[in-house]
Design brief:
The structure holds 2 protein chains of 2 kinds.
Chain A lengths: L2 H12 L6 H13 L3 E4 L6 H12 L3 E5 L6 H4 L1 E3 L1 H10 L7 H8 L5 E3 L1 H7 L6 E5 L6 H13 L1 E4 L3 E4 L5 E6 L7 H5 L2 E4 L5 H11 L5 H15 L9 H13 L7 H7 L7 H9 L2 H9 L1
Parallel strand pairs in A: 1-8, 1-9, 2-5, 5-8
Antiparallel strand pairs in A: 3-4, 6-7
Chain B lengths: L11 H14 L6 H15 L3 H12 L5 H13 L5 H24 L10 H8 L7 H6 L10 H26 L6 H7 L21 E7 L5 H17 L3 E6 L3 E3 L9 H11 L9 H16 L4 E6 L8 H14 L2 E6 L12 H6 L5 E4 L3 H5 L1 H6 L2
Parallel strand pairs in B: 1-2, 1-4, 4-5, 5-6
Antiparallel strand pairs in B: 2-3
Helix pairs in contact in B: 1-2, 2-3, 3-4, 4-5, 5-11, 8-10, 12-13
Classes of the chains: A alpha/beta, B alpha/beta.
């Protein structure tokens, strides 16, 4: 391990994010060679969180773009403020302005609404962190669109020309792999696969977030979740679910990880009716005994 | 093999370029830019430690999780101690793949050495050669067509499929008027001053359905599987959002091989990678594999799943119906196309087919082109 990586791990730890050596190396690499990073993995393993941590580590703004099907230029990059433009034309109707002047006026900066992508490259003081979340949900067209941004860090707006990045943003893309991303996009990114954490790591995460939870309970809870992950469920619980569950223990002042408690709060961790039925029919006490041994 | 080791190079730069070449040889998609970036990273101090170098190169060279194992093998062989066993293993594996391919490709091209073509069938096929017989070709059962007619049939399939896609699009476009597009409206009305007279509208975006095709390539489907594969391939060229799988005793995803521009290229790649052709059938187990590995990320509310199979199954019917149910819960429509349904007096009595029936939205025949064109109706009524 090189010393910088070690330092990054420690700093993230202080910020409340436990990071493995591999991810830390990749994050450092991303910052050093200024290449976007694509994080893939099942839902709820801390992909988005990684971007938040990098932003607070660099002490800079986080700009987030949530992708969805049908995401287009006007919601992701820029849009003209049409109402304001129309009003402005009306107001300036009687002033003696030439057509070119008028045009320059209404296509000026004050009429431009910047959306996340444009915002990220026009940030003035410091390079922001740009999080493009769940990029697999956007259309392929949008992906093609990202290519220009990710390779040259510039955006072309027909009325204004090409806008180049003042500071290169740190770009993190996340994907749940609901579809394969194009090779062109992947080629422009570093790639890292995040998977469910090992027992020790997850336990450390729970301790970090909820230090008041007693050690025994936390251990059993994490072991139970790990057992569930091995069961080939329709939807395996992620770290987010584990934390939810730990949180609900605190909220309900439960001081014992018992069968009654599990049966009541199984909804924190299982998000499918069939899964719930399967687990309940398996008898929670037998699972509990198994993990205790 | 000994050539592929860092100790053969005098400088680190050369060794890195050698490693890139080595990875490329093992089917990792790495190019010049990758070795450049690797060197930049190395200059930044990422090469002082072997583990760090590994993580660094891994994030640079891999584009999906599946490539990790290949990469790790390559890395260990190349940067590890000399004469590693891995090199030997990779070599061996590559060889064994080649021997499998030859026979599979023969079968796929329609020449199954284990089966003699019935003479009477060839006779029938010759009768339907020629452009004027296109109408009758449409209705010819795939199983009765000899290799000579392939070309005509393919052309016809392509033509019909293009038509299918076209009509599909028009239907979707005409149904609804979209929102007003302010940007366009202002542009269009510049000449009227500030009065907006002609409203421009955004046309509704085409709903993109995702088509998931599961093709049975077991022995009993031999007569049909080549044509159905061709059908899938033509669909791929016309519709973008397709995922295709072939199954018999196990399931193989073939979507990536369909991207080729030439069918022959696709077939060649398939014969290299799909080694489950013409074996037995365990539909339930294959669907289970599908559900475990792919369903979560492929199926959604906008997906249509089409199973192309004759339903003759050696596996457990309970498992089949259970797994089909899971698929049905995740997809918006589940269609089963069965080539045997075209036969006179066919009833879905085979135990596999019987178990599957209650879960299906549609059960159609798939023994000739016309029946495949029925798909259009299925697709447009979702």
């Amino acid at each position: 391990m090189i010393p910088e990586v070690n330092q990054l791990i420690k700093e993230c730890d202080q910020l409340g994010y436990i990071v493995e050596e591999e991810l830390a190396t990749v994050l450092l690499l991303m910052l050093r060679i200024q290449k976007p990073l694509l994080l893939e993995g099942p839902p709820g393993v801390g992909k988005t969180e990684a971007a938040h941590i990098i932003a607070s580590h660099l002490d800079t703004e986080l700009i987030r773009l949530q992708c969805y099907e049908g995401l287009d230029v006007s919601t992701s990059i820029y849009e003209w403020n049409y109402q304001k433009q129309l009003l402005s034309i009306k107001i300036n109707e009687n002033e003696r302005m030439s057509a070119t002047e008028k045009e320059q006026h209404i296509f000026g900066d004050e009429f431009l609404l910047s959306r996340p992508l444009l915002k990220s490259i026009t940030a003035k003081d410091k390079a922001p962190v740009l999080l493009i979340d769940e990029v697999d949900r956007a259309d392929e067209e949008f992906e093609a669109f990202l290519l220009e941004l990710l390779s040259d860090f510039q955006i072309s707006i027909p009325e204004l020309g090409t806008i180049k990045a003042v500071h290169r943003p740190v770009v993190i893309l996340t994907s749940n792999r609901t579809r394969e991303l194009s090779d062109a996009l992947k080629r422009r990114c570093l790639y890292h696969w995040i998977t469910y954490p090992q027992f020790d790591k997850e336990l450390r995460i729970v301790h970090k977030k909820y230090p008041d939870l007693s050690g025994d309970v936390a251990q059993q809870l994490v072991a139970f979740v790990e057992y569930l992950r091995g069961m080939n469920l329709q939807k395996s619980p992620g770290i987010a679910e584990t934390l939810d569950w730990a949180n609900s223990m605190m909220a309900l002042h439960a001081n014992e990880f018992s069968k009654e408690y599990i049966d009541k709060t199984l909804g924190c961790i299982l998000k499918s009716e069939t899964d719930m039925r399967n687990i309940k029919s398996m008898k929670t006490e037998s699972i509990l005994e198994e993990i205790k041994s | 093999m000994a050539l592929f080791h860092f100790s053969n190079y005098s400088t680190f730069e050369e060794a890195m370029i050698g490693f890139t070449a080595y990875c490329r040889e093992h089917d990792l998609r790495v190019g010049l830019s990758h070795s450049q970036e690797a060197l930049i990273a190395a200059q930044q101090g990422f090469s002082t430690d072997k583990q760090t170098l590994k993580y660094t190169l891994k994030s640079l060279f891999c584009t999906c999780e599946e490539e990790h194992t290949t990469f790790e093998k390559c890395f260990e062989t190349y940067w590890g101690k000399r004469k590693h066993d891995y090199a030997h293993k990779i070599e061996k594996q590559a060889q064994s793949n080649i021997t499998k391919k030859a026979s599979a490709s023969l079968v796929m091209m329609g020449f199954n050495p284990n089966k003699k073509e019935n003479e009477q069938e060839e006779e029938e096929a010759k009768n339907v050669t020629g452009a004027s017989k296109i109408e009758s070709l449409k209705k010819t059962d795939f199983s009765k067509i000899a290799a000579i007619d392939n070309e005509i049939l393919e052309r016809l399939a392509e033509q019909l499929l293009k038509q299918l896609n076209h009509r599909l699009k028009r239907k979707l476009e005409a149904t609804k008027k979209g929102k007003i597009d302010i940007r366009k409206t202002i542009r269009n009305n510049l000449s009227y001053g500030d009065a907006l007279i002609n409203l421009a509208r955004k046309s509704r975006k085409l709903e993109k359905y995702r088509l998931i095709l599961l093709l049975d390539v077991s022995g009993s489907m031999d007569k049909y599987s080549f044509f159905l594969l061709k059908f899938i391939w033509s669909l791929k060229t016309n519709l973008k959002n397709i995922e295709a799988f072939v199954f018999s005793t196990h399931l193989i995803r073939i979507t990536d091989y369909l991207h080729q521009h030439e069918l022959d290229e696709t077939l060649w790649q398939l014969s290299h990678n799909a080694n489950n052709w013409s074996s037995g059938t365990r539909i339930g187990a294959c669907f289970k594999q599908f559900n475990d590995d792919y369903a979560k990320r492929i199926l959604n509310g906008k997906s249509i799943t089409i199973v192309l199979s004759d339903g003759l199954d050696n596996g457990e019917p309970e498992e089949l119906s259970q797994e089909l149910h899971k698929i049905k819960m995740r997809t918006s429509k589940l269609v089963w196309l069965n080539p045997l349904k075209g036969m006179k007096g066919y009833e879905p009595l085979a135990k596999g087919m019987k178990a599957a029936m209650p879960e299906l939205d549609r059960f159609e025949s798939a023994h000739n082109l016309e029946s495949l064109l029925e798909l259009e109706n299925i697709l447009s009524h979702v």
